[in-house]
Amino acid sequence: GELGHVQLAEAVRFTEEWEQDASLRLRSGDAAALEDYDSHGRIRGNAPDQAMADARRLYVSHYVQGRDVELIVSRKELGREMARQIRSDLRHLGLLPSGPHVQIARGQTAGAGDVIRATRNHHKAGVTNGDILRIEAVNPNGSITVRKGLDRDPATGLRRWAQDTFQWRRYGRAESGLWVTAHAAQGRTVTVGIPL
Q1: CB-CB neighbours of 143 under 10 Å
Q2: DSSP output for 43-73
Q3: Whole-number pLDDT of residue 145
Q4: DSSP code of 7?
Q5: Rounded CA gap, 3 and 19, in Å?
Q6: pTM greater than 0.70
Q7: Potential cystine with 177: which of 19, 77, 86, 117 (Cβ 3.0-4.6 Å)?
């Protein structure tokens, strides 16, 4: 049989009333709701290269302040390229130490200080698809020491991390945790979301 679906009667997670109304109107297919977003400065556009540069600067500025920021991309390839550039910026700022790296998905590398996202369940390690993990160390035995990301602090908007660390070996398919696709971003609350 068909399970159907549930639709919320009112929009939540918005700080301004116009956002709630515009969101519901957009969900119902009313394209005129985009005018509200535009009049409040929520729609920005640029040439692709400039839009990428703007998103990169915005991401780094929030990241260095410890905010829970998420870059939302239309394609995984774009996310991987943006992660490469953002990691370069963070390294340049001294926020990512040099040192040993491991190979993650699609030729990407990650090392201590990097944030990665699990793309598979690994029950023995307690890792679930979609978990955000921060690499604390790359170990000589080929494992990495990681710390799980927690929900952002609701009072400050800062990203929080679990106190406990654990070693993980099955990270080969993990992706950079600096970006997500729109599909994966659903249901997650962050301080700053940057669509690209």
Answers
A1: 17
A2: -----HHHHHHHHHHHHHHHHTTTB-EEEEE
A3: 96
A4: -
A5: 30
A6: yes
A7: 117
